[in-house]
Design brief:
The chain is mainly β. It starts with a helix and ends in a 7-residue tail after the last strand. The protein has a six-stranded mixed β-sheet with strand order 15-18-20-24-25-23, with no helix packed on it. The chain has a five-stranded mixed β-sheet with strand order 16-17-19-21-22, with no helix packed on it. A hairpin with a 5-residue loop joins strand 1 and strand 2. Among the domains are: 42 residues, no CATH class; 65 residues, no CATH class; 142 residues, no CATH class.
Length: 404
């Protein structure tokens, strides 16, 4: 009896109705389709492409341009450019996959919201690749994206930040490459850095502090002052009219070199003083009398003077006249060969004070100190007339007799 009563209800037009076009309505008195259901349709499965369904969230197809049209617009879709996230959400696909996606090209997260991507999962915006324009400018502050890794769309490289990247915390990287300028407002600290290679100029506005190892400079070092420590090197060269406002070198020591000699025959030698080895030399006269003094490899930069000091050690036995000189009359500076750095050599003579000669001692075991100053006027390195040589001598050094 109950079943018959339930079947009788199907005849109620408020439950099932038909019209002249044979449309059937369930819960609808005016059906406008073959089956018009006013309510929820629940089934174990649906078949077909679903292209004419309305109010169904499409997995990546978007919204139909006109859901009620019959001219094709009902199956042509669009997607808004921006997907707004107004509250904190977590993208966590089921265990059957590890990727979630959306057709939206841009994701906008409100200031008090987080977009969290679960551990081990991927989130892919603009999955259809429809975006052809840049990022849409927006006002206000944004939220946060929390994820362990960021990649490009293909998942094969780093993402591109077209407008730059502002980091308020610590940036940790294995390498870094910059094609433009790098500006650091605070302190740039390097730990365990072996080398800094700069193609251009390095400017340190408040100085450079080297804790150990020193500075090895190949080229010209220009400074307004030098101070402290020991200045060690093969020479200090000042280009042009060298004005140094403050040079404070403690414990500087000039290396003394043995002058090279070349036999001229007849007991005479050429004594060669090479400025690349220093400017102080020694010569033992037992190796031969000095016939020619050769001064080589001195710098020729602007209006400059290079001085050579030579310590002559006399013979241990009483020398005869002319020892150490071409002759006693002509003196030590009569025959001089100059060979500036990078210039062919030429011969000249030295100027001496009061037009006298600089002669060496004739007393056994004496030490004589002769200084030769080469002045270059800067008017042309290849012209002998642009060079002048000045000779001074302090001879006859020996122990005094007082107190012995």
């Amino acid at each position: 009896m109950t079943r018959a009563r339930d079947l009788a209800r199907l005849g109620n037009q408020n439950i099932i109705s038909t019209d002249s076009n044979f449309n059937v309505g369930i819960g609808s008195l005016t059906p406008d389709a073959k089956l018009d259901v006013a309510g929820i349709v629940s089934a174990t499965a649906f078949y077909g492409d679903g292209s004419n369904l309305e109010g169904v969230a499409s997995a990546g197809l978007g919204t139909a341009l006109n859901s009620e049209a019959t001219d094709g617009l009902q199956v042509i879709y669009y997607t808004d450019k921006i997907l707004s996230i107004g509250s904190t959400i977590t993208i966590d696909p089921p265990t059957s996959t590890n990727a979630a996606y959306t057709q939206y090209a841009e994701i906008v997260i409100d200031a008090d919201a987080d977009l969290i991507i679960a551990d081990g999962d991927d989130f892919i915006p603009d999955v259809l690749g429809l975006s052809t324009e840049g990022v849409t400018p927006l006002s206000g502050s944004g939220g946060r994206v929390r994820a362990d890794y960021f990649t490009n769309k293909a998942g094969t490289g780093a993402p591109t930040f077209n407008a730059g990247l502002n980091v308020t915390g610590v940036v940790t990287a294995t390498t870094g490459s910059f094609s433009g300028n790098v500006s650091v407002g605070g302190t740039l600290t390097y730990e365990d850095v072996t080398n800094i290679d700069s193609v251009g100029l390095i400017t340190a506005r408040t100085g450079i502090r080297v804790l150990a190892g020193g500075i090895n400079a190949v080229g010209v070092v220009t400074a307004t002052s030098f101070s402290g420590g020991t200045l060690v090197g093969t020479g200090l060269s000042v280009s042009g009219i060298g004005t140094i406002s403050d040079l404070n070198v403690k414990g500087a020591v000039e290396t003394v070199s043995v002058a090279s000699t070349y036999d001229l025959g007849g007991g005479r030698v050429i004594i060669e003083c090479d400025a690349s080895n220093g400017t102080v030399f020694t010569h033992d006269l037992s190796n031969g009398n000095v016939g020619i003094v050769s001064l080589t490899n001195f710098p020729v930069r602007g209006n400059s003077v290079t001085t050579y000091s030579i310590l002559f050690n006399q013979l241990s036995s009483q020398p005869t006249g002319g020892i150490g000189n071409t002759t006693p009359q002509t003196g030590i500076g009569t025959n001089i060969t100059l060979t500036p750095s990078g210039v062919a050599g030429f011969t000249t003579s030295a100027r001496v004070a009061t037009a006298s000669t600089v002669t060496l001692s004739t007393t056994a075991s004496d030490i004589d100190i002769v200084t030769l100053a080469v002045h270059y006027n800067g008017s042309g390195t290849g012209t002998p007339g642009n060079y002048r040589v000045f000779a001074t001598g302090n001879t006859g050094y020996r122990f005094g007799t007082v107190g012995f």
